[in-house]
Amino acid sequence: MDAKSTAFHLYKQTLIRKNTNPIGQIYSYEQKDKIGQGAYGSVYKAIHKVSKQVRAVKVINKLNIKYKERLLSEITIMELLDHPSILRLYETFEDAEYLYMVLEICQGGDVFDKVLEKGCLPVEDAFKIYIQYMRAVNYYQGFKIVHRDLKPENFLFQKKNDLSSLTLIDFGIAKRCIDKLKTKSGTAYYVAPEVLDGLYDHKCDVWSAGVVLYVILCGYPPFYGENEKEILTEIKTGTLQFDGDEWQGISQEIKDFIRSQVCSAEKRLLPKDLLSHKIITQYNQKFVQDNKLLSMLTLNQWVKYHPIRRLALFYLATQLDSSELVNQKNCFFFINTSQTGLITQQELSTYLKVNKQDVQKLWPYIDCNSNGYLDYFEFVAMTLTQQEFLKQLQFMFDFLSQQDKVISQKSIKSIFDQNANFNNKWDSISDTKNHLAIVNQHEQQINVKNILEKDMDFNAFKAIMQ
C-alpha cells in the first residue's frame, strides 16, 4: 500500500499531552491573571507561547488533594469525551508539587448569571440553552457516565451574549454507572429524590436538567426552603408547581415537558426521547450550512493526504476552542440527526447523498479511533480550512516532533505508544461496546515506516500541509 494512503488507529486521548517539562516553557500566565477558584485549586488565564491561544489553567496543589481518585477520574473522563458542548481538556503538566490542567476558556459567564441578570429568560432562549446541554447529556450517557451535578453554574458560555456557545463543565463528581449508584452527591436545589435515598442511576441527570430548565424559565427553583434540610425535604415530598406569575404566558405543553423530567425515575424520559420531542423540534436551531465544508471530494482528498498531515490535523482538531469552530459545529449537528454526538456511516452518506458503500471504503481513514463512528474531533480535522490550520503549523510541528527540530520515526512512535495506555484504561470506567473502540492487538501495532519514511524538518512539513 502506498505510504500516502496509510490508515492508522489513534485514540483521541493520545493527543492530549501529559507533560513533565515546566508549564512556563509553553504557557505564560501570572498571579494577577486569576479568573476563578475551583474545588481543587485556582484557575488562571494563560496564553500558549506558540499558538497564541488563550486558555484556562487550573493549578492543583497535589499535597492538598483530599480526593485524589476523584481528580484522576475527572481527568480520565475529560480525556475521553469529545463534544461541542463539553469543556475541552487540552493537556496536563505535572511537577513535584502541582498538577496543571490546561482547559478551554469560557469568558461569557454562566447560565446562573443570565438568570440573575434578566430574572428569567424568554422561552426561545431557554430552549436554545436546554437543547445544547441535553445533547451533551445524551452524548456522555452513551458512555454510561453520570455527571451528578448539573446546575446553571456548571453551564458556561464561550462568549458573552452568545447563547449558542454553551459549555458543560465540572466532571469532578461524575461517575460511571453500570448498576445503581449509592453515594449522595450534587447540589441541593437540583438533586433528584432518588439520590437522597441512596439508590439511583443516569436518570438523576435528567431530573436536574429539567429543574435547570424550570429555573431558566421563571428565575427560581421548584423546590426551596430556608435551609438545605428544608430544600431536600421539599424535593422528596413536594409537588412540582407552576403557580408564579412568570408561568402565566408559558404553554401547558412546556409545563408537561418539564414534568416529564421532574417526576419519578420510572416515568422520567430519556435524553434521546426528550431531544426528539415535538417541543424540541419546534425550538431547534435551524443550522445554516456551508455546503463547501464537507463533500465526497473532501473525503477523497483526505485519504490521499500524507499520513503526517492527517495526524497533524487530528491533533489540531482536539486543540481548538469551540468558539473557533462555529461552522464545523453547525454542520456536525446538521449531519448528526440522531443527536448522539457521534455521526454514523448512514448519517454521513445521507448528508453526502451517496451510497453507504462509498463512505465505508473511506471509513478507516476518517474514523481514526476505530469506534465505528465519526467523532467530533475527526469531523473537525477533515473540515478545517487552510486559512484555519496554516497559522498553526509550528504548533502542530512541535507536537509531532515532540519539541525536537525534526519529526522522526522515534517521535511518531512515542505518540502511538501512548495508545497502549488507553486500551485497558476504560475497563474500570466503561464497557460500552457501541462507543468505545474494540481493536485487535495486531491492529494497534503501528508500522511507523508507513507513516514517515525519513526525518521531516519544518520546511518539509510545511510543504505537505500546503
Automatic annotation (TrEMBL):
It comes from the Eukaryota. ATP binds at K58. Residues 29-280 form the Protein kinase domain. Keywords: ATP-binding, Calcium, Kinase, Nucleotide-binding, Serine/threonine-protein kinase, Transferase. GO terms for biological process: intracellular signal transduction. Pfam families: Pkinase. The keyword Kinase applies. GO terms for cellular component: cytoplasm; nucleus. InterPro entries: CDPK_Ser/Thr_kinases, EF-hand-dom_pair, EF_Hand_1_Ca_BS, Kinase-like_dom_sf, Prot_kinase_dom, Protein_kinase_ATP_BS, Ser/Thr_kinase_AS. The keyword Nucleotide-binding applies. One of its GO terms (molecular function) is ATP binding. Belongs to the protein kinase superfamily. This is Protein kinase domain-containing protein. It comes from Paramecium tetraurelia.
